[in-house]
Amino acid sequence: xxxxxxxxxxxxxxxxxxxxxxxxxxxxxxxxxxxxxxxxxxxxxxxxxxxxxxxxxxxxxxxxxxxxxxxxxxxxxxxxxxxxxxxxxxxxxxxxxxxxxxxxxxxxxxxxxxxxxxxxxxxxxxxxxxxxxxxxxxxxxxxxxxxxxxxxxxxxxxxxxxxxxxxxxxxxxxxxxxxxxxxxxxxxxxxxxxxxxxxxxxxxxxxxxxxxxxxxxxxxxxxxxxxxxxxxxxxxxxxxxxxxxxxxxxxxxxxxxxxxxxxxxxxxxxxxxxxxxxxxxxxxxxxxxxxxxxxxxxxxxxxxxxxxxxxxxxxxxxxxxxxxxxxxxxxxxxxxxxxxxxxxxxxxxxxxxxxxxxxxxxxxxxxxxxxxxxxxxxxxxxxxxxxxxxxxxxxxxxxxxxxxxxxxxxxxxxxxxxxxxxxxxxxxxxxxxxxxxxxxxxxxxxxxxxxxxxxxxxxxxxxxx
Amino acid sequence: xxxxxxxxxxxxxxxxxxxxxxxxxxxxxxxxxxxxxxxxxxxxxxxxxxxxxxxxxxxxxxxxxxxxxxxxxxxxxxxxxxxxxxxxxxxxxxxxxxxxxxxxxxxxxxxxxxxxxxxxxxxxxxxxxxxxxxxxxxxxxxxxxxxxxxxxxxxxxxxxxxxxxxxxxxxxxxxxxxxxxxxxxxxxxxxxxxxxxxxxxxxxxxxxxxxxxxxxxxxxxxxxxxxxxxxxxxxxxxxxxxxxxxxxxxxxxxxxxxxxxxxxxxxxxxxxxxxxxxxxxxxxxxxxxxxxxxxxxxxxxxxxxxxxxxxxxxxxxxxxxxxxxxxxxxxxxxxxxxxxxxxxxxxxxxxxxxxxxxxxxxxxxxxxxxxxxxxxxxxxxxxxxxxxxxxxxxxxxxxxxxxxxxxxxxxxxxxxxxxxxxxxxxxxxxxxxxxxxxxxxxxxxxxxxxxxxxxxxxxxxxxxx
Lengths: 465, 465
Prior knowledge:
Shape of chain A: globular
Number of strands of chain A: 14
Number of helices of chain A: 16
Oligomer: homodimer
Order of helices and strands of chain A: EHHEHHHHEHEHEHEHEHEEEHHHEHEEEH
Strand content of chain A: 5-15%
């Protein structure tokens, strides 16, 4: 072979900063024996968060047919309650084949039904005259990313097709749109108003793109937002729905942080949509929330009002299913974990009591950590962290940096000095002339107490040149 | 939204027959209460194959930190041997974070090292002056499909880029090449010579494509072959390497059935390549062999001699890693299972003895089933099944069918009559004018004994019109 090869330019150009040069430098430092603190990514169990006991007990039993065959009453020596063994046994039965076989490409039917049940309980859409969730319009995926990729790959039909994406955004969207050869049309939530949306925020860039010949087909909304942590109010969400309806857009609602709201109200797009006939693709995952089971790669995509495919009598849902079929099926343990996420433990049991206690502990700790870190930001000159706390991230604005430095240089220096791994704002996009970074608020308390004062000191020296 | 949407034409056009209209009809029949026998897909545990005990015991422990903390000597009540608990504990320690965290995008380092060790032991390349496997050039993936998709997505840089693919082929390749907008250049192994390859078999279509302006960048080889079961001899493999070297092609070696050879010799492309500087991408998976753990979606891609990327100083390996990073990481349980696949049980233990017995049983049963089914084919007029038995499939040629019928109609009628779900040859591609079907030889013995005579009877009636 020629010793060089021409690579797909779209693949060559795509960027994914969350695993980009700063984390790569961190890996190098770690190899040299330096301690690093991986706050570049929302990966709770890598920073010591304990898994939820109930989830893991069920998963453990699912892998072990022998114990399940012995069944109820025979797992006392495992320190696993009967109701947990029973639930695992029921799940294996419902799956027919357990974890070892390919499933339907869209995932186990019983899990898709459980997902629909969860959505209906959560949203109470039916109570308000809306439409119930349809298990046949739910697809289980390897994490939420898988579903987002299917939708974007199907919708972007040529180089003039565009997708509205918030700036800053989670770079899965920019990378996938780049790979699919479409146009990313950025819209800018209002940072100083806590990243709020207005009609103009969305419509101005939409009209601009249209005037340049771009066919805008969808709008991505991340709520709670990665990387800003912002949680949308219902008024903002209604604006999104109105714009989508008027301009013929589909809504891609990334709702993987829906449990990470720390006491603030959160509403799903399915609920705001109600009975309106706007295509909605909503995403959820086992990776975030209080579960933090990133490694298991479980997630789902729920589709509402799928449009028909031009030139065929197929619905877009059929196309999505075909895409999934080429990958055979999502991993089964991730699927089972989605079932646990949407079903919870058997009610009124010791297992449920432990579950509730563990959940509260994780969420309270996360909230406390975010608040602690914000306190340190207040001691940094010109650093401002807008909006209330959501998701797992803080996205402080860094103010004026010394000549020759952008946020990339700042984050790199912060890493070298303190071992803290962050991602600079440019990795997500940001308003021109501003500098930010994203930090996952996940380290253990004692590590926060230790490293944050060093950051404050670093900042003082850095901005004074 | 407009109630219709223009969908990416490449996504619209791609086909994946393994989950196409025949299996979809089977789902419908099953819903009506009909018994169906899913031989359309190599999914052993869906047809009753038992998982390997050792694998599942380790996986079960990995999900259950509590038992692992109690550690060695404390799992007797689980009927799990100490050496298994110890192995699970070592794997969690080596992983640092267990199953709950995102890993490196290329997968756990300790698993990639184990994969390289496995390849070196298997191939003894170093003994022959060749190059040892490099763990940094191993990527863990969600099944083998994930790796194939990354390679094809990177290599196909425009609509005149082509990939040589055997006909018949596993439709992952045709579907992915279609989605990436490249040209599939078919080459035809010689069916009546047991699907053997020759220089001309490959070079004729290659030159033809080149003369039509196609830049052929890679050749896919599936060995043992899905769907034909054929196992390549070393002479054929050396021809592939020679053609690749002379024409500057990369080799994509799909070797997921390497354990399914039933006593016949098998050689890896890495071994045949030896020290030659031809880019090689080889794929393996936990889904097939005697493991049959399809649902866990574990696999790996090993890269040798990655070319440089035109216009950059990056190697193609770096591009593949970037592609993987957008998907965050392969699922952890699949990664752990890859480790078990390439490491095996602790030697000289009861666990190892059980493992060897279970492995032999699975492979012997598969071989016996294939032989039984071939016996029934001999009772069908004009049905010929060429080549020896490999992989998990038989791909009989159906001979002359009644006017108006192709293999699709035959398979559909076979399903309606007997409940047997197969995939017609056109789903994989076949020489013009021939008709085939693919059957996974996985059903339990008693089911084979019962359904095959009904197929023989069906065939008699079908071909006599």
